[in-house]
Design a protein that fits this description.
about 50% strand; mainly beta; seven-stranded mixed beta sheet; globular; four-stranded antiparallel beta sheet; about 120 residues
Amino acid sequence: QVQLVESGGGLVQAGDSLRVSCAASGRTSFSSYGMGWFRQAPGKEREFVAAITRSGVNTYYSDFVKGRFTISRDNAKNTVYLQMNNLKPEDTAVYYCAATNGFPTGINNDYRHWGQGTQVTVSS
């Protein structure tokens, strides 16, 4: 079992950068989980943003953030990060981190553990 707590969201202007974090706690080693970031905008379904494997060697991104966002993790700190650059108003959403015992895919249902989310708002 793992508990996830996101932080770092806020209100920024278009073109700004922001880094959100997700701290994990629990009995199971953080390095045994593949991690993902998802987001949900008002009135829309939750969508995949980025994922990272247990070791952090492999990362995956949705097309709409590729080249702007970077996912990383620090297993010593039990934390996964999402660095967001050149933010756009359409990036406004609640950002969730999620953990899976399996391979970190872009599919919501593959993740068993979820944080409560952190709001990111990008003004134009």
